[in-house]
Amino acid sequence: MPELYRRWQPGFVVDIGGVLAPFRRGRGDPCLRQDELGRVWLTGNTALGPATLVLVHRTDGAVEAKAWGDGAEVLLDGLPALLGADDDDSGFVAHHDAVARARRSLPLLRLGATGRVWDVLVPAVLEQKVTGYEARRSWRELCRRFGEPAPGPAPAGMRVPPTPAAILSIVDWNWHKAGVDLSRRRALRAAATVADRLERAAELRGAEGRRLLRTVPGIGVWTAAEVAQRAWGDPDAVSFGDFHIPAVVGHALVGHELDDAGLQEVLAPYAPHRQRAVRYLEAAGFSRPRFGPRHPVRDYRAI
């Protein structure tokens, strides 16, 4: 299999681990891994086919990348955007001390973008209204059973996310084995039938791109925001409706948990960089206070 190579010298200091953190779906993510040599491997579907990309950060600041598969050139072309080269934080103002401190402590924080919708939409739908543990388990199972092996010399067990055709091929009992309930499988199947059209959301960007995603039954404000954050690095797409974010932002900025209305009010001064403010708080380590009942982990495979 032919290997393609690119060396990119960014005009800024890149924090590869930090910029790619939102793309990783748990430690066992079969589509994004770091090996024992510190190389970062990731896979993806493109209009030309599946591909694998590996990144190495050199001491002179350059990023060297190799890619394999039919979509190798697409992943290499998207390298700068993936690592935050298109991110523009001009106009961002920290209106709270906690955000200002986070920004000072994280000068390398950037919002990366894959430029592709489908691969980030699937895990976002799987994360709807379930625990992270459940969602990551389903993601691993779907990738293992219905995603292609990663092209090239990728680490053992790496897979390409399932394609729209693969999602449409899954029968009920295999959804059941993957722990995916009826509402989420319906949303995935609905998205798969119009997957090509949904890719235009990454070109529209912003609120227009999110509105296009929400035309699919089962994709609401939260899911559209989760996709927008990763597909085009949307700095204003807050995941309203999230279980954790109102508590994280509320305790960090005003000292108590918020509901969605309160979250919108507190973040309003940050528009059009509301998600950037949230990302600073999350990356700085602010988290939901550890008290109260935890959401139970449900195993749909046993139902």
TrEMBL record:
Q: Which SUPFAM superfamilies match?
A: DNA-glycosylase
Q: Output the superkingdom of the source species.
A: Bacteria
Q: Which UniProt keywords apply?
A: DNA damage, DNA repair
**Gene3D superfamilies this protein is in?**
Hypothetical protein, domain 2
By what name is this protein known? DNA-3-methyladenine glycosylase family protein
What is the species listed in this Swiss-Prot or TrEMBL entry? Prauserella oleivorans
